[in-house]
Write a structure and sequence with these properties.
Helix content is 37%, strand content 21%. It is an alpha+beta fold and 420 residues long.
Length: 420
């Protein structure tokens, strides 16, 4: 036993589970690449102010969940709790928005950190795939991102994912709604912390998951009744584009998400097989975030999907992502000369694009063949002194059990043909 273990609320990702995670990441990213989104990668930590200003001083993420540290030089940093603020910061710093090709379309993958009470589906470090379309206000862009996420879930075979949709209005219509909501909330029986939130960001109270609070919110004013005509028309266009694309959704007037920067379109993907932690992904439009970070007006929209949550949803449905086999060919050498010859063949196979492994350690044929079967390989290459004297190796199909000799000089091309 090791003296050390992973910190509370974290986990290690190892084979065979890691293969499923990689398959989920690839399925979520593939539609984005096909739609012109380029890959972005940002540091694992940023200045604290980036998140306090962008995500919101009143959010649980900033007030309770961020991991912060102070460097030897006195700089205050935070492990990134989400991806949007970092990607927008990187876009502004690199002046991508000035290249004249808006929107700037980026996708990213990484690990994020929040100090939360660990439970099923909620960890203190978690993996996400995210996408951002920066610099353009267009309902078609909102619809595009939602459709790409829905198509990614569909490609994984998920059938139980539901889309919730709402509009949070904009600077023109949200102030009146904020006042109406505050008036309503002040009349409820709430704890002091929640009452303080009413004055800072009353929409966050709508995101409270406690049943004692949610019961009292039944008669809360709805944002849809306060939307200006421009926001109504914008939201209706998003709804129509989703309907035309065959993406089903449920209008949810209580959906506000957990971050302060959202405006207009807000959405969440949920799965009922995950219990209380039902969200598997979500996002929305954040038209004012660039200005909050000191940049120019850059209306933008984006989402983040939890890789961990998506995998849990797949398991809840009894499904699994189609992970590519780690190995196609496993070489089993019998004797020193065979070790040299087959090692050369394995190297040539890898250079030809064939996933190949080797029976290391000088084990006997029985032990090596067990390793070949455990590797998931389709074929085993077996060779001893007599085979090499004849200039052949034995090619064994590990699915059918059929074994045939193949000329040593032809084995690479033969396997490439068989594996397609």
């Amino acid at each position: 036993m090791s003296t050390f273990s992973a910190p509370k609320g974290t986990y290690d990702l190892l084979p065979p589970d890691s293969a499923a995670v990689l398959a989920v990441r690839e399925a979520l990213a593939a539609p984005l690449r096909a739609a012109g989104y380029g890959y972005a990668e940002t540091p694992g930590f940023e200045h604290v102010e980036l998140f306090s200003r962008g995500v919101g001083e009143s959010t649980d993420i900033v007030t309770k969940e961020m991991y912060t540290l102070t460097t030897k030089g006195g700089t205050r940093l935070a492990l990134r709790p989400e991806g949007t603020a970092s990607v927008l910061r990187a876009t502004l710093q690199a002046n991508l928005h000035r290249a004249g090709n808006l929107p700037v379309k980026l996708w990213y993958s990484g690990t994020y950190y929040r100090y939360e009470r660990p439970q099923a589906g909620r960890y203190r470090h978690f993996s996400q795939i995210g996408a951002e379309a920066i610099g353009t206000e267009d309902p078609a862009l909102d619809a595009e991102l939602i459709i790409l996420a829905a198509d990614a879930y569909r490609s994984l075979g998920l059938t139980g994912v539901r889309l919730l949709l709402n509009s949070l209005g904009d600077r023109a219509c949200r102030p009146a709604y904020r006042t109406a909501l505050q008036d309503f909330l002040r009349g409820l029986d709430l704890d002091e912390e929640t009452r303080a939130r009413i004055e800072v960001n009353p929409l966050r109270v709508l995101d409270d998951k406690r049943e004692s609070v949610r019961r009292q919110l039944a008669g809360a004013p709805a944002m849809r009744d306060h939307l200006c005509e421009a926001c109504k028309e914008y939201h209706e266009q998003v709804r129509e584009l989703l309907t035309d694309a065959g993406v089903a959704f449920t209008d949810d007037e209580r959906l506000v998400r957990g971050l302060d920067y959202y405006t207009r379109t807000t959405f969440e993907f949920v799965h009922d097989g995950l219990g209380s932690q039902s969200a598997v992904g979500g996002g929305g439009r954040y038209d004012g975030l660039s200005e909050m970070l000191g940049g120019p007006p850059l209306p933008s929209v984006g989402w983040a999907i939890g890789v961990d949550r998506t995998l849990l949803a797949l398991r809840a449905e009894g499904a699994a992502p189609a992970a590519a086999p780690a190995t196609d060919v496993f070489a089993v050498p019998l004797g020193d000369r065979a070790r040299r010859e087959l090692f050369t063949v394995v190297t040539a196979l890898r250079r030809a694009g064939v996933a190949a492994d080797f029976g290391y350690g000088g084990r006997g044929v029985k032990s090596a063949m067990k390793s070949a079967n455990r590797s998931g390989a389709r074929f085993a290459l077996v060779a001893g002194e007599r085979d090499l004297a004849d200039g052949v190796v034995q090619l064994k199909d590990l699915e059918s059990g059929e074994q045939t000799p193949v000329a040593l000089s032809d084995v690479v091309e033969d396997l490439r043909r068989r594996l397609g």
